[in-house]
Amino acid sequence: MTILVTGATGTVGRRIVGQLVGRGARVRALTRNPGKAAFPGEVEVACGDLTSLETLAPALEGVTALHLITFGGDDYAPLENGRELVELAAKAGVRRVSVLSSFDETSVEEALRAGDLGWTQLLCVEFMANAFDWVASIREEGVVRVFGNHPGAVVHEADIAAVAVAALTEEGHAGEAYVLTGPEALTPQERVRVIGAAIGRELGFEEQSEEEYRASMRAAGVGDDLIEFGVQLGANPPGAAAVVQPTVERVTGRPGRTFAQWAAQHAAAFRI
């Protein structure tokens, strides 16, 4: 069985590839830049772009399981070609699909829901890896500034990958919509404190006003649509964001990783 992983060089995709290799699976990694993929030698690297279906047919040859993301391009815009993409996968012989989703459905989920493929939806409110956004301010100033200090049950990217791998390699996951969280709900301020403990440095925390947040995002070159999304998320996060779910342990057989574990693994990135 060949498993194709799209978004293979991303935060979660790279973890999926690594865990599949660890299981001895035959893995094909889809990327727009094969020369920069840097995968182990046993991984077959395929050049392709989810927004350009003509590049996908060769990558899907012999594939029976597929991990999908729902966006494409450098602007992370939701894919609009979900129907054609799912039809192409079905024609190629794909039987199992895992799809990393947001809570806003795209054309990909719509097409999978209307089709006959066995698919598993992975829903995540926030990744632990989003804390990498704080690297510069922690290293340069020892402080983190955030708009909206609400608790979130952030999930480790390795746990998302583990659930995806289960869905791609095991029976019994088709038709499931798995909401994935970590084992605790922490505010950004609490996460900053955890990072400080991991690097042995006391860190400051400042809660931004909406005006300060907008100004900082504009200064960083962020587009208006993403700024509005960030404002809504910071002011009114979804209720599911703070609800701890047992899904990771139920699917994988072990507890989800804590943010303290994540911070310890990545402490070097935050040190001066």
UniProtKB/TrEMBL annotation:
Pfam families (alphabetical):
NAD_binding_10
- InterPro entries, sorted: Ergot_Alk_Oxidoreductase (IPR051604), NAD(P)-bd_dom (IPR016040), NAD(P)-bd_dom_sf (IPR036291)
Domain named NAD(P)-binding: residues: 7-104
Give the domain of life. Answer: Bacteria
State the protein's name.
Uncharacterized protein YbjT (DUF2867 family)
